Amino acid sequence: MLKKYHELMLIVDTCQAASMYQKIYSPNVIALGSSMIGEDSLSHHLDSTLGVYMIDRYTYYALGFLQSVWPNSNRTLAEFLACCPKSKCLSTVRVRTDLFNKDPSKVLITDFFGSVRNIAYLQEKLEPDIA
């Protein structure tokens, strides 16, 4: 990954999701899969008008957790990793931490989500360089 990141979180929400991060060897990566190898990842609810499932279970519960996070939140990565136990997801969420050298209970979830960008406004007009 050519030193193009400081820390990286990979989230895979699909059947047999844990298989998707087995070959990763780069440092400072934490990986999460919504289901273990040999296991399906299930949908949450059906739209009976359309006749299709609207969202996967892991995504539904992860989104619910993240909607409670604000830029000044003290919620941790460990809390996020526990947002969808088997009783809710109906699959076994797997987390790979061997490449991540920090304790998830001491890492703020806002290190990965909820950033606020500083924007610098320019007073002068910029002209495109068309050559």
Summarize the entry for a quick read.
Helices cover 15% and strands 18% of the residues. It is of the alpha+beta class and 131 residues long.
Which features characterize this protein?
15% helix; 3-stranded mixed sheet; signal; Putative GPI-anchor transamidase; single chain; GPI_transamidase; Rossmann fold; 5 strands; GPI-anchor transamidase activity; 3 helices; alpha+beta; 131 residues
Task: Compile the SSE list and pairings.
Elements: E1 8-12, E2 29-33, E3 43-47, E4 52-56, H1 57-66, H2 77-81, H3 86-89, E5 94-96
Parallel strand pairs: 1-2
Antiparallel strand pairs: 2-5, 3-4
Spatial ordering of strands, largest sheet: 1-2-5
Helix fraction bin: 10-25%
The assigned structural class equals alpha+beta
Beta-strand share of residues: 15-25%
- Which parts are unreliable, with pLDDT below 50 for 5 consecutive residues or more? none
Shape: globular
Give the terminus-to-terminus CA distance: 34 Å
Q: What is the number of strand segments?
A: 5
Q: Average pLDDT across residues?
A: 91
CATH architecture: 3-Layer(aba) Sandwich
Based on CA atoms alone, the radius of gyration comes out at 19 Å
Keywords: Signal
Protein name: Putative GPI-anchor transamidase
GO molecular function, one term: GPI-anchor transamidase activity
GO cellular component, one term: GPI-anchor transamidase complex
Q: In words, what does this structure look like?
A:
By secondary structure, the protein is α+β, with helices and mostly antiparallel strands. The protein has a single domain (8-111), classed as 3-Layer(aba) Sandwich (Rossmann fold), CATH 3.40.50. Helices cover 15% and strands 18% of the residues. The chain contains three helices and five strands; from the N terminus they run E-E-E-E-H-H-H-E. It has a three-stranded mixed β-sheet with strand order 1-2-5, with no helix packed on it. A two-stranded antiparallel ribbon has the order 3-4. A hairpin with a 4-residue loop joins strand 3 (43-47) and strand 4. The longest helix is centred in the middle third of the chain and has 10 residues, at 57-66. The protein starts with 7 loop residues before the first strand and ends in a 35-residue tail after the last strand. The mean pLDDT is 91.
